[in-house]
Amino acid sequence: MIEVKNLEFAYQKEKVLHNINLDVKKGESLAVIGPSGCGKTTLLYLLAGLEKADRGAVKINSQVLAGIRDRSGVILQDYGLFPWKTVYNNLALGLKVRGAAAEEIKTKVSSALERLKISELKDKYPAELSGGQKQRVAVGRSLVLKPDLLLMDEPFSALDALTREEMQNLILGIQNRENFTFVLVTHDIAEAAFLGHKIAVIKEGKIVTVLENSHYGEKNLREKEGFFELQKKLRRLMSLDKKGEINDEKAEI
User: Fold this and answer.
1) Which of these three, 122, 145, 168, is where a domain ends?
2) Is the same domain home to 137 and 172?
3) Distance between CA 173 and CA 145 in Å, rounded?
4) Alpha helix stretches (DSSP H) within the chain
5) Which of 41, 63, 77, 163 could bond 154 through an S-S bridge, CB–CB 3.0 to 4.6 Å?
6) Across the chain, what does the average pLDDT equal?
7) Confidence tier at 250 by pLDDT (50, 70, 90)
8) Average pLDDT for residues 93-98, to the nearest whole number?
9) Given a cut of 50, is residue 31 above it in pLDDT?
């Protein structure tokens, strides 16, 4: 599904990403984790076609990415909802832009509202919604377009802990039913361990390692020892300094 080969990117003369290589199969999820400023959001923008690499290539379904794809959904940190449009019309917008018929729009939007359990909010405006409700609308706006790839940049960071877990469960459940591929950028170790079939650790624009999460999708995962062991491993990887030694100050976080 996604092939990233020797990817390099710089803002002006400042190198942001160094020789990034990734491979994500159809139906898999990739969590990209790292500290602020490590380049993880830039990587997501490159996968979305919002930025162009200086070197290397991104392929999606064996096609070199040359711009924004119709079947890539993007969910950003600030939700990106239009405040002057109702929930229904925020979900319908992408379909209208693509010239969908009125009956098709009604069917797809109504289905998304029902799946996300926000049908009762369809006539409300974003200012009337809670953070979790806004996030569901943002997810719905992508899902009505039937993406085969969903790209998310810190989508749950502004939510309280319980709402964040609820949204993580929701994304996982929808992905299991619809079998799309998704990439999640996060700084939250527990979130990466829960949602990442693969987990790429990035530091200073370089991939430190890519871990396979053998516990991905297990029932009651958050209660299992393997979940906590994976978080400990990720925490250790994120606290390594350039010499491969533990930075005690970061390791205690």
Assistant:
1) 145
2) no
3) 18
4) 40-48, 87-97, 102-115, 131-143, 161-178, 189-195, 225-238, 248-251
5) 77
6) 87
7) very low
8) 87
9) yes
DSSP 253: -
110 and 152 assigned to the same domain = no
Q: Could you say which of 145, 168, 184 is where a domain stops? A: 145
Question: Distance (Å, rounded) from C-alpha 179 to C-alpha 184?
Answer: 15
Token duo for residue 76: 């950003």
**What residues pair up with 183 in beta bridges, in sequence order?**
30, 151
Arithmetic mean of pLDDT, 157-177: 85
- Residue 131: give the domain boundaries: 81-145
Residues 151 and 61 placed together within one structural domain of the fold: yes
Q: Which residues 6+ apart lie within 8 Å of 183 measured at CB?
A: 2, 24, 29, 30, 31, 32, 44, 47, 149, 150, 151, 152
% the chain with pLDDT above 90: 47
Radius of gyration of the chain measured on its C-alpha atoms: 19
Give the separation between CA 246 and CA 253, rounded to whole angstroms. 12
Are 172 and 186 in the same domain?
yes
Percent of the chain with pLDDT over 70: 94
Mean pLDDT, range 183-211, rounded to an integer: 93
| First and final C-alpha spacing in the chain | 35
Q: Note whether 133 and 16 are same-domain residues.
A: no
In a domain? residue 248: no
Q: What is the pLDDT of residues 125-164, one digit of tens each?
A: 999 998 888 888 988 888 888 889 999 998 888 788 888 8
